[in-house]
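Annual report, structural modelling task.

Input specification for the 4'-deoxy-4'-aminopyridoxal-5'-phosphate complex:
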Amino acid sequence: MAFAWIDEQAELRRRAGLVRTLRPRPSDSPLLDLASNDYLGLARHREVTEGAARAARTWGGGSTGSRLVTGTTELHQELERELADFCGFEAALVFSSGYAANLAAVTALAPHGSLIVSDAGNHASLIDGCRLARGSTQVVAHADPDAVRKALLTHEGPAVVVSDTVFSVDGDAAPLAGLAEACRERGAGLVVDDAHGLGVLGDGGRGAPQAAGLAGADDVVVTVTLSKSLGSQGGAVLGPAGVIDHLVNAARTFIFDTGLAPVAAGAALGAVRLLRREPERAARARAVAAELHARLSAAGLEAVRPDAAVVSVRAPSPEGAVRWAADCRAQGLAVGCFRPPSVPDGISRLRLTARADLLDGQIERAVGVIGETRP
Ligand code: PMP
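The model returned the following structure:
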């Protein structure tokens, strides 16, 4: 039997209580949502959905081809100009996902003979970028500029340091200024994934690199997703114009992938314009995160102090985490659940997202449910 090994794996997963299931989300879910990545509550905002609807009417449902053939519309280029300008970088390039943007940035900037220094807590898409790149990878201790410095000293020639700006599991922030300093001492490039920083950190949500004074630097490249704070779908790489031109010519996930759907570009463009007009949304998401953390801690729960809008709560065991999340759901609260193998350190957590549009009463209710259902 060709796939008998799959049945064996499935049996082990069942026994450990770690089977993953797909559950459709109703369009009018009664659950209080602390599980999605819709940090600013924009996925259903009228300006975002109207941006998508207008794009669909003008350009159709799909982009019809790769970006280099028929898949680039004026809307894609408008979004690229808007994203670059908003975040303070010279140029931007949009991709069909943040995952594809990360694969592109890492592989295209780490040629044969180069060194990639990668934080141990990086997102799977950066890890996969390292695996696909021709350069060799050294994984270094989490959020540790000295470990980066040491790794860079082992290599002569091109090097890039790769890190999330806000780590998706615990919601802690990378020491961006320290990483940039370590890079500059050795002439290395810095590639940071601002998936969880855009829309939440920096002035009016301009992102973690802007908050760290790195916007527009000629040795910094930023990747983002359009699928979290911007309430759409897709990804982008921002950086110096020369780097972006290089990606157009060399990044396989740009060249061989169908361009981002115009509807997604239209939705994201609507979101960026809204963020410019309503910069207070970013600060509100941070305030909700601080409030959630304070209330969880007061209730005796072990929560990591959030640097952005992700709040992580420690669970006693993988099975305990799965049960805890299910019990929350039964009480009307949707929370994320991270457990092995999604977390490299083996520590299971509930993952809460501090949406800017959560009301104080909803925060109180969420913490109440999490406390009452604790395993
Ligand atoms: N980077 C990080 C840190 C993420 O959390 C995610 C999404 N889970 C991605 C990249 C991938 O982005 P996308 O979902 O747009 O592919």
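The chain has two domains: 28-44+279-372, 46-277.
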